[in-house]
């Protein structure tokens, strides 16, 4: 999100012009767009809804029985949870059961974090509901 | 939990409680024993118990074996257990493979590449340590681990896969449903027919064990296709003579079974199931050429840089002929 001070100063430099046929001012937004900072990195991990991420965390905690270990967050990597290959396949199954979907293998293989898992789930749900 | 007392130890020298550097000097030269490379009908299984290594404070010595990139990768892992597994699996593979080269390559200098789905493969140097032209041995290897045990399978056959699971592992999901959805139809049907949950659990883990070993041998890992298409059935086995013609080196469990792989590729692969120290199930999948010679098995326990021991508490529980 662009900072408030940047937005305020950019707004003050925008030119308003009146069109000949309407009484409303037209605001030139092109300069405002240029001032927005790039945040592609954040966009990837924030795509999934917090509720989905939380459900994935619950599924993972229950499946891996990690109550004794460190708390799982959205950015937690599955590899860091010490899951072996049977755990990983069980995790996929558990997510499929929880959300009542079938996860495609190619997509599931690319997943490294909890957030990415939530993201794939939402994509799959959207496709199924389309 | 795998316990050191499960193995009969035949120490060839005592372990002294001395400063680490002196310890290294005392033992590293007597440990420089080279190993005869296995041929295509030899299978060598090496077991490392994480507890033993920790008790002897060897982890920092092992770190010195890893090349710089692997050491950095190891330190980037946030989970200590995962870090230790990374270190021990690579130490085991490097030290063993180097020993099979008879001193031509150092364990730190070995290079590996990964196949499409991540299976590691040795990339041999063109020259040996002394700068001479050298023909490396034909070797394939594969690693597997549980919390307490790491296994490295090494063979002269072109492909091998190994998987180890704790005998008392309880899957966390509904494994009957899992089998229905992911395994072959024949397997799912058989699962339904079994009477009690314990028999179902045992059947599930045995299938998983075999599918995982196969997936790792072909370099696919356990993909949906492998789970569904690489199907197995089991039969009671008699007479014992058939076994003795197929496999030597390890005794058979009284209830050994015949593994019948039921997929198109099956005749190129041989499967073996072991019970280790009554606590771990190990499965191996080995590429089988046209050889009809019996498979020669050798299972040893090792503490890299220290010693090897023969493993006595192992039996074969299943075999495909």
TrEMBL record, chain A:
**What are the record keywords, sorted?**
Fatty acid biosynthesis, Fatty acid metabolism, Lipid biosynthesis, Lipid metabolism, Phosphopantetheine, Phosphoprotein
List compositional bias (Low complexity) regions by residue number: 1-24
Q: Where is this region: Disordered?
A: 1-30
Q: Where is the Carrier domain?
A: 50-125
Stored InterPro entries: ACP, ACP-like_sf, ACP_chloroplastic, PP-bd_ACP
**Regions crossing the membrane:** none
Q: Name one GO molecular function term.
A: acyl carrier activity
By its UniProt entry, which Pfam families does this protein fall under?
Answer: PP-binding
Superkingdom, taxonomy of origin: Eukaryota
- What PROSITE patterns does this protein's entry cite? CARRIER (PS50075)
The UniProt record lists the keyword Lipid biosynthesis: yes
Question: In which family does this protein belong, per the annotation?
Answer: Belongs to the acyl carrier protein (ACP) family.
Function of the molecule: Carrier of the growing fatty acid chain in fatty acid biosynthesis.
What protein name is recorded for this chain? Acyl carrier protein
From the broadest rank down, the organism's phylogenetic lineage runs: Eukaryota, Viridiplantae, Streptophyta, Embryophyta, Tracheophyta
UniProtKB/TrEMBL annotation, chain B:
Q: What Gene3D superfamilies does the database record attribute to this sequence?
A: 4'-phosphopantetheinyl transferase domain (3.90.470.20)
What EC class does the entry list?
A: transferase
Keyword Transferase attached: yes
Q: Name one GO molecular function term.
A: holo-[acyl-carrier-protein] synthase activity
The record's section on Pfam families has: AASDHPPT_N (PF22624), ACPS (PF01648)
Q: Where is the 4'-phosphopantetheinyl transferase N-terminal domain?
A: 64-153
Q: Where is the 4'-phosphopantetheinyl transferase domain?
A: 159-243
- The EC number(s) attached to this protein equal 2.7.8.7
Please verify whether the record's keywords include DNA repair: no
InterPro entries recorded for this chain?
4-PPantetheinyl_Trfase_dom (IPR008278), 4-PPantetheinyl_Trfase_dom_sf (IPR037143), AASDHPPT_N (IPR055066), P-Pant_transferase_sf (IPR050559)
> GO:BP terms for this protein?
lysine biosynthetic process via aminoadipic acid
Q: Which GO terms describe its cellular component?
A: cytosol
Q: What keywords are annotated for this sequence in UniProt? A: Transferase
Protein name per UniProt: holo-[acyl-carrier-protein] synthase
Give the organism, scientific name: Ceratopteris richardii
């Amino acid at each position: 999100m662009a900072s408030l001070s940047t937005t305020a100063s950019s707004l003050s430099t925008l030119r308003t012009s009146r069109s000949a046929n309407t009484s409303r001012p037209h605001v030139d937004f092109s300069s405002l767009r240029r001032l927005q900072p790039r945040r592609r990195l954040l966009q990837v991990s924030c795509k999934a809804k917090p509720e989905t991420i939380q459900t994935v965390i619950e599924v993972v905690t229950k499946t891996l029985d990690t109550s004794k270990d460190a708390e799982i967050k959205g950015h937690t990597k599955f590899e860091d949870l010490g899951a072996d290959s049977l755990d990983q396949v069980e995790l996929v199954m558990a997510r499929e059961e929880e959300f009542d979907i079938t996860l495609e293998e190619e997509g599931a293989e690319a997943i490294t974090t909890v957030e990415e898992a939530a993201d794939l789930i939402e994509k799959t749900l959207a496709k199924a509901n389309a | 939990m795998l316990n050191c007392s499960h193995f009969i130890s035949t120490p060839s020298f005592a372990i002294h409680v001395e400063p680490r550097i002196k310890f290294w000097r005392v033992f590293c030269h007597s440990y420089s024993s080279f190993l005869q490379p296995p041929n295509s009908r030899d299978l060598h299984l090496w077991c490392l118990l994480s507890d033993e290594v920790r008790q002897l404070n060897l982890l920092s010595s092992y770190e010195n074996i890893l090349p710089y990139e692997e050491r950095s990768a190891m330190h980037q892992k946030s989970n200590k257990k995962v870090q230790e597994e990374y270190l021990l699996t690579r130490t085991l593979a490097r030290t063993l493979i180097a020993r099979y080269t008879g001193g031509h390559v150092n364990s730190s200098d070995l290079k590996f590449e990964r196949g499409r789905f991540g299976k590691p493969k040795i990339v041999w140097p063109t020259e040996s340590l002394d700068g001479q032209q050298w023909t490396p041995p034909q070797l394939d290897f594969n690693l597997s681990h549980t919390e307490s045990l790491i296994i490295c399978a090494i063979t002269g056959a072109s492909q091998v896969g190994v998987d180890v699971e704790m005998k008392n592992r309880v899957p966390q999901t509904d494994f009957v449903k899992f089998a229905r959805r992911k395994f072959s139809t024949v397997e799912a049907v058989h699962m339904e027919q079994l009477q009690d949950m314990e028999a179902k659990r045992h059947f599930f883990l045995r299938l998983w064990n075999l599918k995982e070993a196969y997936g790792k041998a072909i370099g696919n890992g356990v993909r949906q296709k492998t789970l569904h298409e690489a199907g197995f059935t089991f039969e009671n086995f008699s007479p014992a003579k058939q076994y003795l013609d197929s496999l030597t080196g390890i005794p058979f469990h009284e209830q050994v079974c015949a593994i019948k792989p039921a997929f198109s590729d099956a005749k190129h692969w041989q499967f073996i199931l072991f019970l280790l120290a009554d606590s771990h199930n190990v499965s191996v999948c080995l590429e089988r050429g046209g050889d009809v010679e019996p498979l020669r098995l050798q299972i040893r326990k090792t503490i890299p840089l220290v010693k090897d021991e023969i493993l006595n508490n192992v039996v074969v529980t299943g075999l495909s002929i």
